[in-house]
Amino acid sequence: MRTWATPPALRDAAASGEEGVRLHAEATRRLADDPDLGFAAALDEATKASILGS
Question: What's the CA gap between 25 and 23, in Å, rounded?
Fold first, then answer.
């Protein structure tokens, strides 16, 4: 459960036209939600979600 507000820069990045920027933003959000996840795992999850369209 998210207990922090998404910063405007992260919202803007999540809406970017560049896939790499969107993936990085999603990974950052996932890492903030679960710091124990680690960035590499968060990026992997974000990439898989992007590929699957969820």
Answer: 5
Instruction: Tell me the pTM.
Output: 0.69
Taken in order 21, 10, 50, 1, is the CA torsion positive or negative? Answer: positive
How distant is the alpha carbon of residue 40 from its chain centre?
Answer: 11
Cβ-based neighbours of 49, under 8 Å, separated by 6 or more: 26
**Counting beta carbons within 10 angstroms of the beta carbon of residue 51, is it exposed (0 to 12), middle (13 to 18) or buried (19 or more)?**
exposed
Q: Kindly give the confidence (pLDDT) of every residue in the chain, 54 residues in length, as a single tens digit, with 9 standing for 90 and above.
A: 566 678 899 999 999 999 889 988 988 888 888 888 888 888 888 888 888 875
Helix (H, G, I), strand (E, B) or coil at 49: helix
Q: In the numeric block, which tokens belong to residue 49?
A: 């979600």
